[in-house]
Design goal:
Elements (H helix, E strand, L loop, with lengths): L1 H33 L9 E4 L2 E8 L2 E7 L15 E8 L2 E8 L5 E8 L1 H24 L1
Antiparallel strand pairs: 1-2, 2-3, 3-6, 4-5, 5-6
Length: 138
C-alpha cells in the first residue's frame, strides 16, 4: 500500500515537473517575443477593458495587464487632479489612476518574466539535481 502511494506521489511530481518545464519554455518564448512585440501597438484583448501585452524595459521583459485600450501606462505625467496609487517593487509594477476631471480610471499591472522563470525552474532543477546525485551514488 505504501509503495503504491509513493508511486502515485512520484508520478504526480513527474507530471508537475514536466508541466513546469513546459511553462519555463513558454516563458522563454515570451522573452523572445518581447523583442518583436510593441506594447504600445500590439496587445491581446480579453474584453474592452482588459488587455495583455509584453512590455520590454532594458534587460527585463514584463507581462503587462491593463485597461486602457491603446497601451499599458508605465509612467509619466497624467494631470494635476489625478489620484494615483501604486507599487514598484522587485519586478512588480502596479499603478491605479483616477482622473478627477473626467472620472476615468486607468490601471496597469506589469510582472517581470523573471518571476515565472525562477518559479518554473524549481521542479526541473530539483529533478536534474536528483538525477545527477543518483548517477554519482551508483
Amino acid at each position: 500500500m505504501k509503495k503504491q502511494k509513493a508511486k502515485k506521489k512520484r508520478s504526480l511530481l513527474n507530471i508537475l515537473t514536466l508541466l513546469s518545464f513546459i511553462l519555463l519554455c513558454l516563458t522563454g518564448l515570451l522573452f523572445y517575443l518581447s523583442y518583436r512585440i510593441d506594447a504600445w501597438g500590439e496587445s491581446f484583448s480579453l474584453r474592452d477593458d482588459f488587455h495583455i501585452s509584453l512590455y520590454r524595459r532594458e534587460n527585463d521583459c514584463r507581462l503587462a495587464f491593463f485597461n486602457e485600450k491603446n497601451y499599458p501606462y508605465v509612467g509619466g505625467s497624467v494631470g494635476p487632479d489625478t489620484k494615483v496609487r501604486g507599487l514598484n517593487f522587485l519586478g512588480i509594477y502596479y499603478r491605479h489612476y483616477r482622473l478627477s476631471s473626467e472620472g476615468d480610471i486607468w490601471w496597469t499591472l506589469c510582472i517581470s518574466l523573471w518571476w515565472p522563470v525562477v518559479l518554473f525552474s524549481i521542479l526541473p532543477g530539483l529533478f536534474l539535481y536528483r538525477k545527477h546525485s543518483d548517477h554519482h551514488q551508483k
